[in-house]
Specification:
single chain; biotin; ligase activity; D-amino Acid Aminotransferase, Chain A, domain 1; eight-stranded antiparallel β-barrel; 657 residues; globular; Rossmann fold; alpha+beta; ATP-binding
Length: 657
Amino acid sequence: MAFDTILVANRGEIAARVIRSAQALGLRAVAVYTTADAQAPHVALADEAVWIGDGPVGDSYLDAGKILAAAQHTGAGAIHPGYGFLSENSEFAAAVEAAGLVFVGPEPQAILSMGNKAEAKRLMIAAGVPCVPGYEGADQADDELIEAADGIGFPIMVKAAAGGGGRGMRLVQSKTDLAEAISLARSEAENAFGSGELILERAIIAPRHVEIQVFADSHGAVIHLGERDCSVQRRHQKVVEEAPCPVMTPDLRAAMGAAAVNAARAVNYRGAGTVEFLLDEAGQFYFLEMNTRLQVEHPVTELVTGLDLVAMQIAVAQGDHLSLTQDDVTFTGHAIEVRLYAEDPANDYLPATGPIDLWHPATGPGVRVDSGVVTGQDVSPFYDPMLAKIIAHGPTRQVARTRLIKAVRESVLLGTVTNSAFLADVLDQKVFAQGEATTAFLDQAYPTGFPKTQPHAQDAALALALLLDADAKRAREAAGYVSEDQLGWSSAALLPLNVTLTIAGQDLHLRATATLAGWTIGAGDETFEITLTTRDTDMIRARVNGKTVDVVALLSRDSVQIAVGAERMTFSRVRPGAQDETVVAGGRVSAPMPGLVVDVTAQPGQTVTKGDTLAVLEAMKMQHQIMAAVDGTVSAVHIKSGQQLTAGDVMIEIEET
């Protein structure tokens, strides 16, 4: 089983994470990459990198043949799949072993058994692991599922048997909505996983989502490394994870840990795995699923245990015994992680693409940032929108939380839209701060969605000061030598300059006057005296009405991106005479993001009402229903299934009635 070269069959932050641990063990690390990822950090970190395609995952990271060929070409003796992509593909694991290579993960049969929710649940029931009542039968006819749901009772969860990450999953409150939910879940599951098999489970309302990290070697030893609370979720996707769980007790940890170990033993598990449970208010827990791979949130476990889980994976894959027993596992302090996504929380969390003009991860005591991007890179529509994980550790939960809020604010990504303001707001919510968040937390905290950022007058004034300061600098450079005592001198009072800035479609009217020290800028009824005191590349310190303000800023001639706290804003200057020629009628339906057209239900001449589904667009591994915004008749359909769209492409036109 010994090997000296390992190929990492993944991308982004997890590929970089695995490469670093492999190299620390003295191993040679090989990366694979696409044209879209040519500038990604994991490519630069690796000892060797192999190109496997242009971008789409089906022709690159999901192409087992290309991965195996890259391993054989580079002399790799093992393949680490990371998470996502091929990490839970039993056929790929078998192909790796058939090629004489080591798969850094469990045996194919364990992946197969636990990868199908129906089979996994049957195994867990047999092993005595508590499970949620439901239906996991082989008969997949709609009528059979509907009849089974009647016996389970509503509300009910419809889940893809082969799924994960919230895809192919629907919460159904009543029988009248069940048929449509089955259809949508099955379609999403078929597109995401190649299988439309579904299971049903009784919905446990507002539980905690608590998972146990297990580890097993090939010699029969199985231990657990404690729990992680992953209750803060949207659309069944995790947003915040922490260890330990805020309501955990020694007895409950022992019981959940024992159940997780039994689950792993039931499938002769090997390597790192996670057994996920739902924990209700009464302290009862129920098996949810087992992820037969490393988890995105593994850093919080590493920080509280002091262990390197990737190094442990590699050691087990080499045939080593686990280096510790259950009694050796200890926990120190508290750790919390958030996921920085390229998405717009104020626009229903739609994924975003675009350039990364600046990436400046936070540093500091107890702070760790695992990222998969660099300045100058583009965010591609082909992959998951996660850009980085920001993690903080401290002696107490409160210290970890406050460190993390600061780290989120100081991890600045400019260019594309991110969820940084949303993350900071979540961490600052009273319910989360008190450790009371359940899976219902986000819906309760933001019942109408995350509010759109409203720019503060001070931010707009500071943005204008930066633009005008850049103008002045260009003018001085063009004018040649001007003595210091003449800079800013005038024989007459300077007239105010009226400037309009726009942000997210909103016009802001400002007045600016130059002073010897800087600028006086008026915004509505407010006036700001601004002096730019320090400029260190993109890091700027200003005095605003006598107070020190630190911002990160990137300027072009007529726009400025600034980061203030956790907010990321782009202000653009409106030049006199410029006109906005963009006119969108209420009946014109445009792509809200780049994506692949999965289904088109609208037909020319069809009568539709507001809220009707017109098409389904897949972007960054999730499917989004495109709905009519008006009542009317479909006058034109410009798309077809399988078509790749860019943001703003006109999809469908409706003649309003």
